Amino acid sequence: MAERTQPPRSRDEKAAHIRHLLETEGEAVHAQSSSSNARRYDVYEETPTLEDRRSEARAIKEDAIDRLPSLIETVREAVEANGGTVYVADDAADANAYVADVVDHNSGGSNAKSDASATNVSATRANDAAPTVVKSKSMTTEEIDLNDALETAGVEVHETDLGEWVLQVADDTPSHIVGPAMHFTREEITELITERFDPDESVETAEELTRFARDYLGERIREADVGVTGANFVVAETGTMALVTNEGNARKCAVTPDTHVAIAGVEKLIPTVSDLEPFVDIIAKSATGQPISQYVTMLSPPTESPTLAFESDEPISSTRSTDESEEPNANPDRDFHLVLLDNGRMEMREDEQLRETLYCIRCGACSNSCSNFQAVGGHGFGGETYSGGIATGWEAGVHGQDSAAEFNDLCTGCTRCVDACPVKIDIPWINTVVRDRINRDEEPPAYDSLVDGLTPDAEGGGLNLGKRFFGNIATAARLSSATAPISNWIADTPPARALLERTLGIDRRRDLPTFQRESLVEWFEARGGIEASRRRANEAQERGGTADVEREAVLYADVYTNYVDTERGKAAVRTLETLGVPVRVPDLPESGRAPLSQGMVATADRQASRFYGAIAEDLDAGRDLVVVEPSDLAAFHREYERFLPEASFERVRDNSYEVCEYVYGLLENGADPSLLETGAEAAVGDGTAAGEPIAYHAHCQQRTLDLEGPTLAVLERCGYEPTTSSVECCGMAGSFGYKREYYELSMTVGDRLASEVESAETVVASGTSCGDQLESLLERSVPHPIELLAPRR
Amino acid sequence: MTTDTVGRFERSLVDLEVGVERASAADASERIDSMLDDPAVGVPLPFEDVAQPESVDTNPTGDDLAEARTGVTPATFAIATYGTVAIESRPDGDEPVSLYPDRHVAVVAASDVVDDIGAGFERLESAFAAGNSIVFATGRSATADMGSLVHGVHGPGSVDVLVLEDR
């Protein structure tokens, strides 16, 4: 557990903060979040209806947010008809004052109904004991700091979720929206509980700790005046709320005290009971990888359950109404308040980009699937309240952009959360948009003139220099390549590294890419261009064994393939020609991937249009766009939808292929794998013999696009026996690992990957960043799979 | 509902480490009795010809409830695929009786075991229209907040289900 620190500001402070979290909380968070993530994969895999459920859930949310104002009126009528009260709170102060008021009117042993509209909190109580509240876990109450507000009003508050209780005892904040105390080890909890309570019995094991908590909190629940819960979902039509827990504490808090207050963001409203079904079915799967959580409590309060009096001779069921003519759930002693919190949500609803955040069901799957989150937890990757990928949207919406700015850069845009999210929120896109907004609000940097010549972008002057540099990396690469090897030599000198670190924040410990004097495009022209390529492909066809297709490919020479890793580009050209496909390698404009990563949306948008203009003729001619770098393919397949007219986007998406995916298609169409450089010869074309073992790390975005499989299939067909990495990301994700404040984090994530693959004799990786990261960690060459497969000539 | 649905329900319960037995109405009371840790509390069972065993206190005070080691309740229905029992919040106290004691014994009619969550929601919708409250309880109360998985936190640490057959 870390001591609470002020939010980091400068690059140095941020680096120190991350280093501290890596050392103090990282191990515990990694253990729990990565195992939840692994269980999620398993249960998603075993759920044939998963995609339908995700689509249903998203559609319900889209519809509910669309007609939110009318749902608020519907639920008000339903709850009032049941005998409860609905209060819509504008902000934290409003919500807190209302709850304090309800507690004040329902404490002191009196069962008097509260007057919900009263604002006088000094009403007299039956005795002098402080009123007490028991609470079940609710991020919404964290958002409004309800505990602090109640304690200021003289109320004793007890968290009953064991994780929240640990945090309350430690005076700490949640580091995960589902497992709030995930950053504590059992030893730390033992120490904490021993110090605070000095218990008679031992509290060493998890069982002992749990028993102690159960007994202690059980007593608090029995004594409490008011129970406060959140609500995972609220059904407008019936006033039913769903509380999802494993411990059972929400049930106890809701039904033990006479008064129940449920606090929920307005976005939790869904129209009807049948709309609950997909959410009940999917929330535990996405959160913890359980098929369903232990308790899904669906209450339409005030409930018919008897109120529980302890130290009384009255049987509990005597509180029930004996009057048959009364409303079915009219228990005269029960009091219920539903507090619906706005706190910025209605404005988010009007914000085209942040609106999607409101679909979030707070399952934490985005956190668990995120390598950076797994390494630092929500105290690094989180704002005032919310954490993980979706936190950028929440924090920007409910606490303002400054809170989001503290951690937004920790999203590398790797997209691993995209498949995890049960309501299909494009979380990386929200992060990109908010990053863009933050960029525009920043102070103009001091070294402007130095970077100006390198930044032909469409951004305003306030942008951070490092971001601007990485967003325009192609220009720097072009210049460096033109002046290589001198540029490489200069860039690697200590004074140059110091300057790069000071001005652009490039960590001096990080190996810089080595720029090639001859770019891939130049190499291709020098060997005869498309005519020579056609000749080679024809010769291959005449020799036989090639694919039975009439295709022509345009290889996209992305920045790295063109100027740095030219070998993988050459390997791609040779492979396609050998399998009978002529190749062009034109000097195409940049895809826009680099500025997109930096949150430079206007620049990325402009580049996407330029790229489309340049490729349109090839697409018209029926040529295939073959892409080596998965992050560029992801731009074509995902982000271009935001930048291009629909028909143009679909043309680019439908005609672009990852290089190994393309090779897979050729093999499927009859090309002979033995034309390629193969592993164990006996295994080629024969599924029975053992292949040559290799380790393969697919790029994060490639996995999101379901393109790990084709590469594996090609490797297997060519006599290899690949094992794959389970780490979500290499820790580099483009420019991320170069940045000084994130260097240690990048290496921590990278080490986890390296330790998975290091025992393999051969390691291959699809992404440039992944390959670079693995090469520095393993201190050996880590080629692209296509380099392994390409014929040696 | 088919016999197979009950079989599937039983397999789900076994996976959840929940005890399960089948019994006829005639044997139900005796079977429930064999599942109890004393003291036991319960709510009246709404099944024809099925009574709570005599040792079960069906009119407990709050303190009886807090001290009971077993709580016996009916389940309105059950969902086979997840091994879920649906417990209603009724004036008799089904909700606290199923929640407070460390052992919960749920009694469900075989005819009320539905196949999947979709069928469960069909049953729910009519209940909610009447303003009711229901909990889907699946397996035992659990937490991992104390460093490893522990059962029996705020809710029961052991659960048994009796399926009434001849109905």
Give an overview in words.
- The complex is a heterodimer of chains A (793) and B (167).
- Chain A is α/β, with parallel strands linked by helices and 793 residues long.
- Chain A is built from 38 helices and 17 strands.
- In chain A, the strands form 4 sheets. In chain A, strands 1-10-7-4-2-3 form a 6-stranded parallel β-sheet, sandwiched between helices.
- In chain B, the strands form 3 sheets. A 6-stranded parallel β-sheet of chain B has the order 1-12-7-4-2-3, sandwiched between helices.
- Chain B contains 5 helices and 12 strands.
- Chain B has a single domain (3-164), classed as 3-Layer(aba) Sandwich (Rossmann fold).
- With 167 residues, chain B is α/β, with parallel strands linked by helices.
- Chains A and B meet through α8, α10, α11, α12 and β9 of A and α3, α4, α5, β9 and β10 of B.
